[in-house]
Amino acid sequence: MGSHVRSTLIRLGFETLYRTSAYAALQPLVQGVGAVLMLHHVRPSRVGEFQPNRLLEVTPEYLTSILERLEAARVDVITLDEMHRRMVEGDFARRFVCITFDDGYRDNKEWAYPILSRFSVPFCIYVPSAFPEHRCRLWWLALELAIARSDTVKIEIGGRTLALACADAATKCAAFRKLYWQLRACADEAEIHRAVERLAAESGVDMVAETDGLCMGWDEIKTLATDPLVTIGTHTVNHVMLAKASEEEARRELLDGRRAVEAQIGRPVEHLAYPYGGRDTAAEREFRLAAELGFKTAVTTRPGVLFQAHRRHMTALPRLSLNGEYQDMRYFDVLFSGAATAVANGFRRVDAA
Ligand SMILES: [Zn+2]
After folding, report:
1. Rounded to a whole number, what is the distance in angstroms from the first to the last CA of the chain?
2. Which residues neighbour 182 within 8 Å (Cβ) at sequence distance 6 or greater?
3. Three-state secondary structure call for residue 218
4. Cα of 28 from ligand 1 centre, angstroms
């Protein structure tokens, strides 16, 4: 299913749930004990119709509204360590939320950190250790930039050449969706980087210059880490699709990524986010590896709230994405009720398989 079709369906689903108050009726059944929120970029919205990666960003105002809503609802905003304690000890007296950011973007420090500090709430940033070392490979962003400045794009994926027209916003969006998912489906991740690097070069996109400034350097991460409200987690070394790597490589990515962050912040790193985090990139083997390597918690991008039963699956935790496409507090209310994700998960409470 195309992501546009899917997002329209999601939007319709939310509207239906909201209007019928079905979510209120479902709430006792599905609300769980808490939730881990997932964010990427926090920054003011930009103009322009072609922003295919917009689902990875929310505005500072939206983040503020979420925190106000949590405060008004007297939901505890807690660290991942405290979440781990409550889960394993079975301390479910109060509903809780953890706030997490993936990838270590500089806007987290510039825009989100002042807001989070004002509310005195803890949060975690998951850092892929190559990103602060000027080795970030944000291919999804390079793909967007290449399509934005071209009328046609030609890309070679798996020995097949795809040529797509992309002269206006609608065809640019269609081209992005098609190429993004074709690339995601590559069995060998190196193929994605080769294809996008070639496309970027042909389109005059300087991948390093365009994406490097988006990620925090170690100095910035180390400064943030001195704040007791901040947890720095790991997100592998190279932001790899772990499930597509050999077990040896996956283990190395997990270990080396953790060690690199520990060496910088001088403190144990016990929390992991699987890059991409969907079924195709993090599954049973990765959940087992993370547990074997001693991570206290590991989060996916599978949508859902936390249930008591997740205490037996602490390296396979779902999250709720705060998504730039749905910056409406009603969507948050529905999401947080757990009804939308329960529908998506077919009412299975723990989707760890
Ligand atoms: Zn990521």
Report:
1. 22
2. 157, 162
3. helix
4. 32
336 CA to centre of ligand 1 in angstroms: 22
104 C-alpha vs ligand 1 centroid, how far in Å?
Answer: 9
| C-alpha span between 284 and 292 (Å, rounded) | 12
Domains along the chain with CATH numbers: 3-132+216-344 (3.20.20.370), 139-209 (no CATH)
Task: Please tell me the distance from the alpha carbon of residue 208 to that of residue 195, in angstroms, as a whole number.
Answer: 15
Crossing angle, helix 329-337 and helix 60-72, to 10 degrees? 50
Handedness of CA 98, 104, 108, 114 (dihedral sign): positive
For 96-125, the pLDDT digits (tens) are 999 999 999 999 999 999 999 999 999 999
Cα 257 to averaged position of ligand 1 atoms, centre (Å): 13
Helix (H, G, I), strand (E, B) or coil at 33: coil
Centroid of ligand 1 to alpha carbon of 20 (angstroms):
35
E strands within 129-229?
152-157, 160-165
**3-state secondary structure (DSSP) of residue 189:** helix
Short-list 171, 177, 133, CA closest to 150: 171
CA of 218 to the centre of ligand 1 (A): 17
C-alpha dist (Å) from residue 41 to 36, 54, 55, 255: 16, 9, 9, 26
Q: How much helix, strand and coil, in percent to the nearest 5, is found in the chain? A: 50, 15, 35
pLDDT tens, 239-251? 999 999 999 999 9
